């Protein structure tokens, strides 16, 4: 397969970026998108040009490192996958593919297609953890957890913090990410203890970092590689309202 | 409470509460306007006069204007923050699947705001502050609002503007109604689909109800 690639190139965070066009040939339809970029980089290195910088790590859809806004969709033209799980057979031979970095004030470009997603880590640092001492490993079933809550918590805990929700949201809102992190802890007994402080701190940090406001468009849910649902955002809102009314401390 | 009021979620809750209050008002307004076509002009004038003079309604009127003010101010505030949160946009337009109407809330809101100003100048302010330009009272203390409304709806350009605005208002409501409940944290397997259905029915009632009044008055020789 042959492709024309329009790729965003930017020296560093302060430099002005621009699109550059590359032609690439003889790509296998079974090749992953990142492998295709690897091949392009090899040709650039051969020509003594600077290779394209992009994030990647596990390449099996669990680390959340690969990003890329491909033809107007985060992680490209397929559902419930990360970019490393995207294959070139999803494109037509001869296609022009536009590749851009995640665009958000809270995700500044580091270089080319690589963005700084530390903002998501800062939200976790603000309260996305359990700090109480939970003691040693308890006997099985000593803390009752309903199957339903267990399933919902595990569904929310699938969030890999890739930032696709922010990238696709027209408001660059991180609500789905925060909702997933708040939900998976708030649904379980150990997480409930600090639930009020957690939700207030995490939402405050999200606001401080310059993410936009959720307008319930549902784009995040449509693009989440782990199928995190909007019901988590409703739960976040619910947790926040009760915590906001009941909490005596300001966060 | 300070956590609640100053946060992004708090601002949206305030906006949603104000929005739902305005949605209720739209229904009451529609009910009174309907009197023009299902009853007679005198009944409409009596109802309009009741709404303008009743002490309790006057208090609600203040709440209503406060609601409109909050909804607009918070809407603009949140929208500016949203624009600022993505200083550099994408070259390739967003192809993610979203609900159609949710993408154009600010655009429909701007049209509704312009419509609201025209509407207030044409009817509300005229009856409140421009008594000289009002037709004679139909009975002691009862203004003849019906004549003003009918005169307006006999002008084709005015009717077209109204129909377009009602349509866009309906587009706004298609997303707004169910979105408000999501903002309040209300999500339920059984009830959320009901809320979505009620929201669509409500928006359709607003579009067709108001449009029907304008069209009937324009087309009927009885007015």
The largest pleated sheet of chain A is described as: 5 strands, mixed
Could you spell the SSE succession of chain A in H and E letters? Answer: EEHEEEEEHHHHHHHH
Question: What share of the residues of chain A does DSSP label as strand, in percent?
Answer: 5-15%
How many helical elements of chain A? 9
Class from helix and strand fractions of chain B: mainly alpha
Radius of gyration of chain A: 20 Å
CATH class of the largest domain in chain A: Mainly Alpha
| Element order of chain B: H for helix, E for strand | HHHHHHHH
Instruction: Tell how many strands the DSSP assignment of chain B holds.
Output: 0
CATH architecture label of the largest domain in chain A: Orthogonal Bundle
* Secondary-structure class of chain A: alpha+beta
Q: CATH superfamily of the largest domain in chain A, please?
A: Alpha-helical ferredoxin
What's the overall average pLDDT of chain A, rounded?
Answer: 95
User: How many separate structural domains of chain B?
Assistant: 1
- Amino- and carboxy-terminal Cα gap of chain A: 54 Å
User: Helical segment tally of chain B?
Assistant: 8
Gyration radius over CA of chain B: 20 Å
């Amino acid at each position: 397969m042959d492709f024309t690639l329009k790729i965003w190139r930017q020296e560093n965070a302060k430099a002005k970026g621009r699109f550059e066009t590359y032609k690439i040939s003889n790509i296998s339809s079974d090749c992953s998108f990142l492998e295709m970029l690897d091949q392009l980089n090899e040709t650039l290195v051969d020509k003594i040009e600077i290779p394209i910088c992009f994030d990647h790590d596990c390449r099996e859809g669990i680390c959340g490192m690969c990003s890329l806004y491909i033809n107007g969709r985060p992680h490209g033209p397929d559902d419930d996958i990360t970019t490393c799980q995207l294959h070139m057979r999803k494109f037509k031979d001869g296609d022009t593919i536009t590749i851009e970095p995640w665009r958000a004030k809270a995700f500044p470009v580091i270089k080319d297609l690589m963005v700084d997603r530390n903002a998501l880590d800062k939200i976790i640092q603000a309260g996305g953890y359990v700090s109480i001492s939970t003691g040693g490993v308890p006997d099985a079933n000593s803390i009752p957890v309903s199957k339903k809550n267990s399933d919902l918590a595990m569904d929310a805990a699938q969030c890999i913090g890739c930032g696709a929700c922010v990238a696709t949201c027209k408001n660059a809102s991180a609500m789905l990410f925060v909702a997933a992190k708040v939900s998976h802890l708030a649904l379980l007994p150990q997480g409930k203890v600090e639930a009020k402080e957690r939700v207030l701190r995490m939402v405050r940090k999200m606001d401080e970092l310059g993410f936009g406001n959720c307008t319930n468009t549902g784009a995040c849910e449509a693009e989440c590689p782990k199928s995190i649902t909007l019901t988590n955002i409703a739960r976040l809102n619910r947790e926040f309202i009760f915590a906001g009314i009941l909490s005596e401390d300001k966060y | 409470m300070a956590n609640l009021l100053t946060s992004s979620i708090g601002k949206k809750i305030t906006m949603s509460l104000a929005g739902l209050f305005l949605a209720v008002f739209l229904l009451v307004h529609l009910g009174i306007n309907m009197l023009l076509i299902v009853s007679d002009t005198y009944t409409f004038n009596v109802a309009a006069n009741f709404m303008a003079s009743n002490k309790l309604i006057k208090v609600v009127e203040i709440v209503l204007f406060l609601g409109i003010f909050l909804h607009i101010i918070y809407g603009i505030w949140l929208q500016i923050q949203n624009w600022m949160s993505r200083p550099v946009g994408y070259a390739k337009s967003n192809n993610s699947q979203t609900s159609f109407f949710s993408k154009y809330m600010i655009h429909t809101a701007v049209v509704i705001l312009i419509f609201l100003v025209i509407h207030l100048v044409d009817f509300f302010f005229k009856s409140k502050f421009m008594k000289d330009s009002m037709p004679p009272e139909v009975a002691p203390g009862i203004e003849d609002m019906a004549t003003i409304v009918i005169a307006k709806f006999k002008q084709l350009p005015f009717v077209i503007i109204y129909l377009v605005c009602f349509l866009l208002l309906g587009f706004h409501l298609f997303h707004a109604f169910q979105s408000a409940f999501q903002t309040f944290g209300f999500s339920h397997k059984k009830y959320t689909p009901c809320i979505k259905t009620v929201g669509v029915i409500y928006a359709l009632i607003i579009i067709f109800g108001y449009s029907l009044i304008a069209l009937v008055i324009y087309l009927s020789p009885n007015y």
